[in-house]
């Protein structure tokens, strides 16, 4: 069996690099999720406004 021995400081540096990479991926995913939620909230707001406009028109028509 062949084992590679690395110094503790190199191992810590590599672990830090991996953690930073994973953190970067998480931030990207969170940003994508935030954009999706913002877009959905905008669509909901537009739909709500359209429903209110239709309801007002119906109320005025029957008044």
Molecular structure report:
- With 63 residues, this protein is mainly alpha-helical.
- The protein has one domain (1-63).
- Helices cover 87% and strands 0% of the residues.
- It has 1 helix and no strands.
Number of helices: 1
CA distance, first residue to last residue: 89 Å
Secondary-structure element series: H
- Helical fraction: over 70%
Instruction: List the domain count as a whole number.
Output: 1
**Biggest β-sheet strands, sense, barrel:** none
Mean pLDDT: 94
Number of DSSP-assigned strands: 0
Whole-angstrom Rg: 27 Å
Uncertain segments of ≥5 residues (pLDDT<50)? Answer: none
Which band does the percent of strand residues land in? under 5%
What structural class results from the helix and strand content?
mainly alpha
Net shape: rod-shaped
Key words describing this protein structure:
single chain, 63 residues, mainly alpha, 1 helix, 0% strand, rod-shaped
List the helices and strands and how they pair.
Layout: H1 8-62
Summarize the structure.
The protein is mostly helical and 63 residues long. The protein has one helix at 8-62. The protein has one domain (1-63).
């Amino acid at each position: 069996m062949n084992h590679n021995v690395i110094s503790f400081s190199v191992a810590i540096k590599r672990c830090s690099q991996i953690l930073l990479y994973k953190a970067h991926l998480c931030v990207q995913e969170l940003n994508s999720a935030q954009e999706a939620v913002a877009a959905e909230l905008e669509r909901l707001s537009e739909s709500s406004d359209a429903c209110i406009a239709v309801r007002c028109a119906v109320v005025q028509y029957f008044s």
